[in-house]
Design brief:
The protein is mostly helical. The protein has helices at residues 2-10, 12-24, 26-55, 61-119, 122-150, 156-177, 189-193, 195-206, 214-219, 224-235, 241-253, 262-266, 272-286, 295-299, 301-325, 332-349, 351-361, 365-397, 402-419, 428-461. Helices cover 81% and strands 0% of the residues.
Length: 462
Amino acid sequence: MAGFLSDLVQYRKLLLMIMVLGIGGTHLSGFQMSVINYTSPYIQKFINETWLERYGSVLQQETLTLLWSLIVSMYCVGGMIGCLCSGLLTAKYGKKKCLLFNDVVLIIATLHTGFSRRAKSFEMILIGRFLEGIGAGIHLNAHVQYAGEISPKRLRGFVNVSCSVFLALGKAVARILGLRDLLGTEDMWNVLLSFSGLVALIQLVFLPFFPESPPYLLMQKGDKAGCLKAMKQLWGEENYLTEFDDMMKEKAITKGTKIMNVLEMLKEPSVYPQLSTMLLILLSLQLCGLSASSIIDRFGRRILLWGGYLLMALILMLLEISLLLSDQFLWMRYCSVILIFLFVIAYGLGPAGAVMSVMNEIFTLSTRSSAFVIGGIIIWLGLTFTGMIFPFAVIFLGPFCFLIFIAVLVISAVLIYLFLPETKGKSTSEITGEFKKCQFKKKRRQTVEKNATEEKTFCTKL
């Protein structure tokens, strides 16, 4: 523990940068996802009043529901578009410039939502939510990649898990500011909606004082001096030649390899194992039944994923039993509440941070941007799918709906245990080599089986 604290002191500028990234990045996304719930009745009343003032007639309930659904769903539509743009933007301009440009987009978005009440225009809320979604889609991808690339191997897990921490913090801030004693009132709902613009402005002011990520400077810009300067600025005076050598090895391996777009990546068989791994952990994260931090560097990513999923499956099994018996034994209801808290704790200590670390570590710089585009699309589709399907699953299955999540968790844990190599403390080239070894073993086994079959067939014919 003492060593970990000394690391935090040594890398204080890195931690300050993580704060700037988190406040203006995933914090915003968590805030925007939650704040709409606390402004819902006021926005719907505002739409009704605006419609009446414009057209002199009362808005029908079906039309109001449609307009409200558009305001909510525009955020997800924008998020999808932001994800699709993020790969190209981060590859061409770098993570830092991409985030600074995105802060401007978010400020413009919150100006629309903030002044909508004064302008008496609910269409401005619609535009603002759409632009906020685009900003969230870009920010989530760029922030996670940026955070992973600016951190040394010994703190990579800790830095990556900060993304999940700031996402939860954003949701908590939205809940606090949404209280009726603060901004959750009929007179202040538009201020609450536009609060994230202030946070984006903070990042826009402070982020220029920090460097671009060292891997981007070395491998895409060919700027060795800039890379070393950035490492020194972020990591202090420590000897980081080992980290630099690892980057040089990755650069030599990927020499002549251009940054792949999404379609090129999907056609490249060599990254299929990494894509399959990312797909598995993201889908299991979406369907685990839930829509920290030096522990990730102590135990590694692999055990936190499969062990965390198994623990969550066990807790869900106990929750299933407690729900079924709650009518017979009243004290079982208290057990259910405790189990829900334990489930959240298991999620936070295990998969929450490990997923981001694994996504950052299993892809090379030439494929990372496109991989995060694909991952972001999976996340946004997962949010939409879970939100649409789960209410019907509750209606048809009742408490047995948790059996779906238990099955997903157990299957995911087994597959991760079997196929995901440990990434803790390894360079990107070493992790890529681990996946290639798995591919080689699989091909070799298939060749042996094929030869054995052919030999058996030949002997049978004789």
